[in-house]
Amino acid sequence: MINLKYKILFSNEIDRKLQAKIMEWFNSTFHQKKADIYFKWKYLDNPFGESIHILVFYKKKLVSCRAFWRLDINETEAYQCVDTSVISAFQGKGIFRNSTIKALKILKDKIVYNYPNQNSYPAYLKLGW
């Protein structure tokens, strides 16, 4: 069994060094070149409030990032599942599932929604969505 450490942070708890690491991870996973300002725009300057980030580490190395972006609906607190990435060597180890379950425990009485892509769709179905 792999010893993974899950760290759950709100956007305001993430320092600049970790922001840079998350953006590096995001750009690598999605083959993009978004500037670090993207994190600030999406998560720190979010007019709806704090988003939740689930970071997964293996031996202090970041192996997964998952965000639940605060994006309210009709003035009701809501979170959209976005920007999920798991390093290929750690895929199939339950990280997506465990990250989702951990976030839903925190957001238990909130609206949580998504627009799954072809990669996440089967995983959401397994979770009963």
What helical percentage do the residues reach? 25-40%
- Report, as a whole number of angstroms, the end-to-end distance: 27 Å
Note the beta-strand portion. 25-35%
Spatial shape? globular
Main beta sheet: 5 strands, mixed
Which spans have pLDDT < 50 for at least 5 consecutive residues? Answer: none
How many strand segments? 5
Number of helices: 4
Which strand order does the major sheet show? 1-2-3-4-5
**Rg of Cα set:** 14 Å
Write down the secondary-structure element order. Answer: EHHEEEHEH
Task: Record keyword descriptors for this entry.
129 residues; alpha+beta; 5-stranded mixed sheet; globular
Question: Could you give a short description of this structure?
Answer:
By secondary structure, this protein is α+β, with helices and mostly antiparallel strands. Helix content is 32%, strand content 28%. Strand 4, helix 3 and strand 5 form a beta-alpha-beta unit.
Q: Could you explain how this protein is built, in words?
A:
- The structure is a single chain.
- The protein has 129 residues and is of the alpha+beta class.
- 32% of the residues lie in helices and 28% in strands.
- It has four helices and five strands.
- Strand 2 (52-58) and strand 3 form a beta hairpin.
- The chain is globular.
- The two termini are 27 Å apart.
